[in-house]
């Protein structure tokens, strides 16, 4: 699958509660969306997408298989993590392995649950984590630049270009600007940035954990996080870990009734999963037939052969063409036959870029 989102946060913010609710929800829905525990702190969850069920009904598909996203519950962070304090080395090492960061922020008041800094202030907490990541990136760059100077003097072209990129990043990091917001980079440097594996180059989703009665409306803390997220170019979502833990134990009917009583249209975890999916700039395409209706994941900008390769490498290697129907046309024409008769089925070649919701049938020859 290859796409994962690390869940991070300070102690007592509800990080592990949310992760446990995610895994329990996935396990409860295992009939249609298999859940796989890879390690004790890693799990895969189905990405909610009502389009898949609509396609399955029209095609009378025997099985429905959602696309999935991996979540990783990362060791807690304390100040000084960049210098190895607490579980700092483990924390930083785990973050380096994920594609995006879901940062859980405490946005609820509870005298029975102490905060490591003595008060609830999600913006301060966000800055604490961001600062530790920037300090770790600064240390990483300084160590690597020393070696790159020697290589670039020896005529190593890649070392020279990487050194130039790092020389742009280092002063900005020192001024409190994370790598993902660095300015003055050329297009080639923007493309090279992810290869440097800097912690602050990863996209961030702020997850505001609120009390049960504030799940639908939020509070002053979530409003502050929303404003902060817009300023720093991050995404945000509001959930109640306490509610999600309860929902994970309910059947479909009881879940719907419980959500309705709380004034919620859907579980917060569904929004969290979709937000994580969007944070990674991913698209969904479908394959539909009597055996199964299935959702697949590709990065935005992927070509038709690359999408075919997600299904099987042979499909990409021997790609001939993609028979393509947009989701809207598939629904409007009541399925593939109707879309074909209406002239809505298109033949796309190897340069076609996937559009979210495309229904594909790949032709290949190996």
Account of the 3D structure:
- This protein has 366 residues and is an alpha/beta fold.
- It has 14 helices and 13 strands.
- It has helices at residues 15-28, 50-59, 88-97, 122-153, 157-174, 187-192, 220-232, 241-247, 252-261, 268-279, 304-311, 313-317, 327-332, 336-341; strands at 4-8, 37-39, 42-46, 63-65, 68-73, 100-106, 204-209, 235-239, 282-288, 292-299, 319-325, 346-348, 359-364.
- It has a 7-stranded mixed β-sheet, with helices on both faces.
- Strand 7, helix 7 (220-232) and strand 8 (235-239) form a beta-alpha-beta unit.
- Helix 4 runs antiparallel to helix 5 (157-174).
- The chain is flat.
Report the helical percentage: 40-55%
Taken as a percent bin, the fraction of beta residues is 15-25%
**Which residue ranges are poorly predicted, with pLDDT under 50 across at least 5 consecutive positions?**
28-38
Q: Specify the number of helices.
A: 14
Main sheet record: 7 strands, mixed
| Spatial strand arrangement across the major sheet | 2-3-5-1-6-7-8
What coarse outline follows from CA principal-axis ratios? flat
CA radius of gyration? 23 Å
Please tally the β strands and state the result: 13
What class would the helix/strand composition place it in?
A: alpha/beta
Mean pLDDT: 87
